[in-house]
Amino acid sequence: MIMNAIAVQNVFFESDLKVIMELYENQEKLTALVINEANERREKDIKVLTDEQKENYDYWFNDNYHKISTEHPQLIRKTIFLQLYFSFEAHLNKICDHLKPPNINLTYKDIHKNGIIRAEIYLKKVCNVTKPFDSDEWKLIKSFNKLRNSLAHKDGLVDKSNLNPIPNGVIFWKPYKFDTLSEIILSKEFIEIAYDTYIAFTTLLEQQ
User: Fold this and answer.
1) In terms of CB atoms within 10 Å, which end of the chain has fewer, N or C?
2) Closest alpha carbon to 114 in 125, 122, 105
3) Phi, psi at residue 13, to the nearest 5°?
4) What is the pTM of this model?
5) Using one digit for the tens of pLDDT, what is the confidence trace for 73-107?
6) Please, what is the Cα angle at 35 between 34 and 40, to 5 degrees?
7) What pairs with residue 159 in β-bridges?
8) Cα angle vertex 91, ends 90, 97, to 5°?
9) Could you tell me which of 65, 22, 69 has the C-alpha nearest to residue 191?
10) Which residues 6+ apart lie within 8 Å of 39 measured at CB?
11) What is the SS3 assignment for 185?
């Protein structure tokens, strides 16, 4: 009965994540199209420009190209990553509600922690769900938690040494050489890894 409840919740969760990923994939395709069109436009434009005009044109073009090729994709990926994370956090809370023992009044909201860590404590201590939280998937999700916190509260800066493991597909750029904090740059691969990890972990919950 309990496992059936988790299975049902997993179906809804996976459906929600697929919608997010469809939006993401469409945005990546649109970005690629805009970049390709910009390159084609430049090739046409510079053919009729003098050397001096080309220099001014390239200054303008490079500034705009950086926005569409770097800034816009990062904004999209960080937004998608956060939405995937928020959906996963909400899913864990729903699992806590469904697995709450009927003879216990304590809910996950009574645990003095926040987010996915609060759900972890409740599921382990109250619902006796332990095995999934020993998995590599959960270790990676806890790194996602630190990345999420850095984006939400620290302007996207994170101390790389606090991530264990360090997720594949994340690039760390140090704005200041001697600072311990690095800016997070997300690749397309990372978004796919995050999606796969959440799905894999929910499968582990169902198999508990």
Assistant:
1) N
2) 122
3) -65, -50
4) 0.92
5) 999 999 999 999 999 999 999 999 999 999 999 99
6) 95
7) 181
8) 95
9) 22
10) none
11) strand
